[in-house]
Design a protein that fits this description.
286 residues, Transferase(Phosphotransferase), domain 1, 3-stranded antiparallel sheet, 8 strands, 9% strand, STE20_Ser/Thr_kinase, Protein kinase domain-containing protein, protein serine/threonine kinase activity
Length: 286
């Protein structure tokens, strides 16, 4: 229910996947489970993780990385200005449409900041992308703000450059993240603008870390080639990748299942009707 609340609140932003409705099915028998299906905008380009993993182990172009970072920062700036924090920014939660638009998804770990302090006190996130201040330490109370999302974006930028996040082969990583120096790019072939951007994202002290609003003014994202050019490049690359065999295991809805669903939405818009029809036809709605 908390995730639905955030989707309804933020789904209208151009860098956050649009929310079309939620459909609930009560357990059909004592032995079956209840089902809640959340229907979002279809992002035909797949996840950023998919783009990284299918690019033959090579780095994404620096301009592509800058473009993705800029679009994610726009979405984060909107979330943060509304005194909330995403808490799970990573490549799996960044989607691409067929025309290479960038969309943030998965608000299951999102949280409203305390109205008095502007802080969050609960530990949530995915270990390799979590900020040092968001990792619980024995005997210490957590207290952090929106800057945790900026750290996660910095880790995601390294993931785009190197094919995996820092410490990817090590687990648990919480101690390393808290105690080690901030991770850096392993290759020296990247521009100084990119290096500087990462340094701003990955300051151990969150008070020294850039905010989403501040980083949108960083040369790494302000001095990119025209957006249309980058999007066309990524779009063409996505078309090439989609010629590969599709992944198995796509969940198909049946008409019988959906007829048992209870629509949470007070009104059904044309977009919601379209999303429901996609579900009936067996499309995967991300």
């Amino acid at each position: 229910m908390r995730e639905l609340k955030f989707l309804q609140q933020f789904g209208g932003h151009k860098n956050i996947a649009s929310y079309y409705g939620a459909y609930y099915r009560a357990p059909l028998t004592e032995c079956s489970s209840e089902l809640l299906e959340i229907v979002l905008e279809y992002c035909g380009g797949g996840s950023l993780d998919n783009l990284i993993s299918k690019t033959n182990g090579q780095s994404l172009k620096e301009t592509w990385i800058g473009y993705v970072c800029k679009e994610v920062l726009k979405g984060l700036n909107h979330i943060h200005k509304n005194r909330a924090v995403h808490r799970d920014i990573k490549s799996l939660n960044i989607m691409l449409t067929e025309t290479a638009k960038v969309k943030i998804i998965d608000f299951g770990n999102s949280w409203d900041l305390d109205p008095q302090t502007g802080l969050c006190y609960e530990a949530e996130g995915t270990a390799h992308w979590m900020a040092p201040e968001a990792i619980r330490q024995k005997g210490q109370r957590l207290a952090y703000d929106t800057k945790c999302d900026i750290w996660s974006l910095g880790i995601t930028a390294i993931e785009m450059a190197e094919g995996k996040p820092p410490y990817a082969d090590q687990y648990p990583v919480e101690h390393l993240i808290r105690e080690a120096q901030p991770p850096k790019l392993q290759s020296n072939r990247w521009s100084q603008r990119f290096v500087s951007f990462l340094e701003s994202c990955l300051k151990k002290d969150p008070s020294e870390r850039g905010s989403a609003e501040e980083l949108l003014q960083h040369p790494f994202v302000t001095q990119l080639p025209p957006k249309k050019i980058i999007k066309v490049e990524i779009e063409e690359h996505l078309r090439t990748l989609q010629n590969l065999p599709a992944k198995k295991g796509v969940t198909l809805w049946t008409l019988k299942q959906l007829r048992h669903a209870c629509d949470f939405c007070a009104q059904t818009s044309a977009e919601q009707e379209a999303a429901l029809q996609m579900a009936l036809e067996g499309f995967s709605c991300y």
